[in-house]
């Protein structure tokens, strides 16, 4: 990191650098865009992956953003703090949408909740909230009176126009209006009540005959303000929301939030709890991929496959139910370890799963993967290049299907993953079939991990003693894990009280939905179902 420090100071001497697990660099907004371009393009830095943008309101100290960046070349991390200029009526930061494609969506999210305007961003509409929403909910002075924003009983109002702020020759910020669709475009709705959108997600799609010209995604139909709610809760109370994001595979999310809190509080958990957490994470991954395979095949007309894959998923949920007491919202990981010890049947039941899993996977491949219809529908459809996957922050099996080795368990090992033998599954085709096959092969690797642990679960406490009231010291922390759908990150900022000052959840499904417009351009409308399904996004994970 000393080399990065020297490089940064040579490029921007006025930068303020703070050391920590992830170096933080504070730069003035006037220098931000040029500095960001250097961070991305300089070969010694090469920060090409924008993980997330954390909007912040520091009350009287102003508003701003914290950008988390990763170099896929050097496997290094950095955070950049940029304070907004202007006042609370019109806070301004220069956009970086031209450097990282995903920044367009990330900046819209910050604008939606904080009202920070990003100069030169081509689309400054709200992202999750209704276009008529009054106020910015994540500001500390937000008025939550429901009378200000009554629930609408009329149809959703929409507009084909967006605001764009640019600078004129004198440096004055000027607002323009830009049209989303052209007047002659033929626009159809797919969703929000469409089975193949896998939830209440809406694609406004401009088509020319059967060919897709543009997709405008509408989000927020089930936005519940999780990050805002967490600001009024204690740290243990925030945990159960992790079940309600990626509700098909919540264990890794719990794991991430617990690790972030434990690291901040200086809590060291037992070896037994670490092994149990990893076992649950990998069982979740197999169950999640089974559900993906079954529902995706059903999207393409292979209805029977759902019943084949649900056999394994139900077997795993039976195992979970005995230990966790639930089949979906487990709420199992807790600060200090796990809620309760493993059920006496756990080892026996997991061995029974491992005994049948290879034959089941072979069966899936025989029935579907080699099917000529499946090949015609999926191969060379929805191709996402490695460069675009990184620029759009498309991680997990979707990124690895495009040749990007982005598995957090390998590139930034956490818990006990560095001790385990398993292969990172990477394919280079970048199409819908590659994304499908990556998930199929990842089930085999998850089984390898489970096999190494299931007969070696150490004795000890399943949960260590923690303070009755958990207060984190003032500061900030950022942790990432490999969720079943990609990189999941948690940012915590503490002011020293028992409640998080800010809890930001960086989920993998928002980039997966955002990239749909890019990889469907010029494809047929029938292929939208194939492409969207292959990305395996979960709508509550997007909306939060």
Automatic annotation (TrEMBL):
Gene Ontology CC annotation, any one: plasma membrane
Domain NADH-quinone oxidoreductase subunit D span(s) in chain numbering: 299-544
Entry keywords, A to Z: Cell membrane, Membrane, Multifunctional enzyme, NAD, Oxidoreductase
Compartment(s): Cell inner membrane
Predominant place of localization: membrane
Signal peptide: none
InterPro entries, A to Z: NADH_Q_OxRdtase_suD, NADH_quin_OxRdtase_su_C/D-like, NADH_UbQ_OxRdtase_30kDa_su, NDH1_su_D/H, NiFe-Hase_large
Enzyme Commission code(s) on record: 1.6.5.11
Pfam family, one: Complex1_30kDa
Source domain of life: Bacteria
Domain NADH:ubiquinone oxidoreductase 30kDa subunit residues, every copy: 25-145
Key word Membrane present: yes
Recorded catalytic activity of this chain's protein: a quinone + NADH + 5 H(+)(in) = a quinol + NAD(+) + 4 H(+)(out)
Gene Ontology MF: a single term: oxidoreductase activity, acting on NAD(P)H
Membrane disposition: Peripheral membrane protein
Family: In the C-terminal section; belongs to the complex I 49 kDa subunit family.
Subunit structure: NDH-1 is composed of 13 different subunits. Subunits NuoB, CD, E, F, and G constitute the peripheral sector of the complex.
PANTHER family: NADH DEHYDROGENASE [UBIQUINONE] IRON-SULFUR PROTEIN 2, MITOCHONDRIAL, NADH-UBIQUINONE OXIDOREDUCTASE 49 KDA SUBUNIT
Protein name: NADH-quinone oxidoreductase subunit D
